[in-house]
Amino acid sequence: MDTNKSSNTFKKLSNSIPSIGFLSRKKRVLAFIKVTAKAQEMIDAEEITEDEALMLLSLLVRKNKDFQKSGMMTALNLADISAGVMKPIGVKYANSLRAQLKMAPIEQKTALEL
């Protein structure tokens, strides 16, 4: 991915982050779901690859405190999120955050598997 495309995609994802509220578990998880759904849309439209999406989400966690809080809250509560609510890229990235926290991955079925 070239630098310009990467920068534009990063901005799209960054601009899609809604308010996470003040210590609101629900708003934080919903923010993570919304951003990763946007990333999944870009993957499905073949604007970016899955690896590029994971890299951009990683960068977003490091550069945006709200998304960092959102990601950590989602990783900690991944087992409580209903199957099919989160897009595959969101589950994959939340599990990578869980791995950083030395937590076991959570397998979630997609809507197609239900």
Write the layout of secondary structure elements.
Layout: H1 3-15, H2 25-44, H3 50-63, H4 65-76, H5 88-100
Helix pairs in contact: 1-3, 2-4, 3-4, 4-5
Overview of the structural elements:
This protein is globular. The protein has helices spanning 3-15, 25-44, 50-63, 65-76, 88-100. The model is unreliable at 110-114 (pLDDT under 50). Helices cover 63% and strands 0% of the residues. The protein is an all-alpha fold and 114 residues long. The relative contact order is 0.16.
What is the gyration radius calculated from CA atoms?
13 Å
How many H/I helices? Answer: 5
Terminal Cα span: 34 Å
What is the ordering of alpha helices and beta strands?
A: HHHHH
Beta strand count:
0
Jot down its keywords.
0% strand, 114 residues, single chain, mainly alpha, 63% helix, globular, 5 helices
Summarize the structure.
With about 110 residues, the protein is mostly helical.
